[in-house]
């Protein structure tokens, strides 16, 4: 079917001019420091996504402590998960202005602060602000840079690198579930959150490892990528027609913006030279003015790039396949999150606590999730395998498991379904790869920010919806059925839209031939 943006028939920009230039690739691309970036991203996934997957433990503690409904209490976990992802587009603006490293370090401090303040919660509504909003925003400021940096440093092994880094989610869910269980049993949930906040400060170290590539290195990576795709026989098809019909990338606004920025800085330097020849007392003010001007230029340039990606002529939403991808993301993530939040309660209802204490079902999902990400990443990197096809097959498997889970009422049956959920949800490692294939490296940060924002909306409403359905029916069955059906709708959009995208250029070329 469809493996990349070339196959789908959509691309941003034309690199035919630079493709002919011989280049020497940076040794850090696909090697060297790139593996430190993978390590940093791996640790970020452990500390952020792994901790969020273990929130079912704290959710039970909050139910007992505050004696609120399941629907209201579930909002604490869903706010944290949802906001982490929803802030993605706005974090893209931070990355454009400050870079991935600074954004991640600031986010690490915010995340730790949210955990620590939550230890002093007097009610559920206090947790909404401290854990849901504060820790959630901090998590988002670390998570998006961790994903984007791996995409920037890898070309040939992108799927494998993303697979290895995102296995941190599985490791983290397994480790954090055991850790939070132990801390809550030994010290209580309040002290457990305080300790977890101290551990989360390690996110600042992860951010410090995110050494940025120079613009020259990024251009070389893009050229190498173009050459490798050409050698593999994946030439662009119908991209010119599609860009003309959907709106292409214009270089003129960027050139005008750069010219305006250079004019501002040039005028500042001219004033500074004049100040040197005049009086030395105003030099401090001139330096301050120059610093503010440079900061203004940086903010303007970052905002212009961010704004053009969402609302300009080069808007990502002119890519119809990308729009279908966003619609899929709106329904997909809740189907994965609901089991993690509510499985401990389901196990308690089925009187399976003894078996679950020996080997928790959430830990089964987490462990198999690790292997799923790595294996699906390796398979997708094979020359004869389409990443898009692997992505779709994993989605079909996951939605089948979600619809089947309520039918299982024994520990063995639930364990088998949870193992399949863990393996098929390994497609998360392919999401950055598929996104980059759709929009290109240059737009990856903003595009992936939109995708995880849609996932965040799904995560925000999924667990409370499941809790609300339980409060009405005293069962979780309908929660899984409704979530699975909505997920299926999103998958159908993914399957249908690329077929339409391919069909339209063919029909247009046929009409032109007839004329």
UniProtKB/TrEMBL annotation:
Residues 221-258 are annotated as: Disordered. Keywords: Membrane, Transmembrane, Transmembrane helix. It is found in: Membrane. The keyword Lyase does not apply. GO terms for cellular component: membrane. Gene3D superfamilies: MFS general substrate transporter like domains. Pfam families: MFS_1. It comes from the Eukaryota. Residues 221-233 have a biased composition (Basic and acidic residues). Residues 37-502 form the Major facilitator superfamily (MFS) profile domain. The chain crosses the membrane at residues 33-55, 75-96, 103-122, 128-148, 160-180, 192-210, 321-341, 361-379, 386-405, 411-434, 446-466, 478-496. One of its GO terms (molecular function) is monocarboxylic acid transmembrane transporter activity. The keyword Transmembrane helix applies. PROSITE patterns: MFS. It is a multi-pass membrane protein. PANTHER family: MONOCARBOXYLATE TRANSPORTER (PTHR11360), MONOCARBOXYLATE TRANSPORTER 14 (PTHR11360:SF239). This is MOT14 protein.
């Amino acid at each position: 079917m469809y493996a990349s943006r070339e196959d789908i028939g959509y691309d941003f920009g034309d690199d035919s001019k630079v493709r002919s230039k011989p280049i020497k690739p940076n040794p850090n691309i696909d090697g060297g420091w790139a593996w430190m970036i993978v390590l940093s991203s791996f640790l970020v996934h452990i500390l952020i996504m792994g901790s969020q997957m273990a929130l079912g433990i704290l959710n039970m503690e909050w139910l007992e402590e505050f004696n609120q409904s399941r629907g209201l209490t579930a909002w604490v976990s869903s706010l944290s998960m949802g906001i982490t992802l929803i802030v993605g587009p706005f974090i893209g603006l931070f990355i454009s202005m400050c870079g991935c490293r600074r954004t991640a370090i600031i986010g690490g401090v915010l995340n730790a602060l949210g955990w620590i303040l939550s230890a002093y919660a007097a009610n559920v509504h206090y947790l909404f602000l401290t854990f849901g909003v504060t820790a959630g925003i901090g998590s988002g400021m670390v998570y998006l840079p961790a994903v984007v940096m791996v995409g920037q440093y890898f070309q040939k092994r992108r799927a494998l690198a993303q697979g290895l880094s995102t296995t941190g989610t599985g490791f983290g869910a397994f480790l954090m579930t055991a850790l939070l269980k132990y801390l809550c049993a030994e010290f209580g949930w309040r002290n457990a959150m305080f300790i977890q906040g101290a551990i989360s400060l390690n996110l600042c170290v992860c951010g410090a490892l995110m050494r940025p590539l120079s613009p020259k290195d990024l251009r070389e990576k893009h050229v190498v990528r173009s050459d490798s795709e050409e050698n593999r026989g994946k030439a662009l098809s119908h991209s010119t027609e599609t860009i003309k019909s959907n709106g292409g990338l214009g270089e003129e606004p960027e050139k005008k913006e750069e010219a305006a920025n250079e004019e501002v800085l040039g005028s500042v330097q001219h004033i500074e030279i004049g100040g040197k020849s005049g009086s030395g007392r105003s030099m401090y003010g001139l330096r301050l003015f120059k610093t503010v001007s440079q900061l203004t230029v940086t903010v303007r340039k970052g905002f212009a790039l961010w704004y053009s990606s969402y609302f300009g002529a080069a808007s990502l939403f002119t890519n119809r396949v990308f729009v279908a991808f966003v619609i899929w993301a709106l329904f997909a993530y809740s189907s994965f999150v609901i089991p993690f939040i509510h499985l401990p309660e389901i196990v308690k209802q089925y009187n399976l606590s003894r078996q679950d204490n020996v080997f928790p079902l959430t830990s089964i999902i987490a462990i198999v999730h690790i292997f799923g990400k790595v294996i699906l990443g390796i398979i997708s990197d094979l020359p004869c395998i389409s990443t898009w096809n692997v992505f779709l097959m994993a989605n079909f498997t996951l939605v089948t498991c979600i619809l089947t889970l309520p039918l299982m009422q024994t520990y063995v049956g639930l364990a088998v379904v949870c193992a399949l959920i863990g393996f098929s949800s390994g497609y998360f490692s392919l999401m950055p790869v598929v996104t980059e294939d759709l929009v290109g490296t240059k737009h990856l940060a903003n595009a992936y920010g939109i995708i995880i924002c849609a996932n965040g909306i799904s995560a925000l409403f999924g667990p409370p919806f499941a809790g609300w359905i339980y409060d009405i029916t005293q069962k979780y069955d309908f929660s899984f059925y409704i979530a699975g059906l909505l997920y299926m709708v999103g998958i159908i959009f993914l399957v249908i839209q690329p077929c339409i995208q391919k069909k339209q250029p063919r029909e247009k070329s046929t009409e032109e031939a007839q004329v």
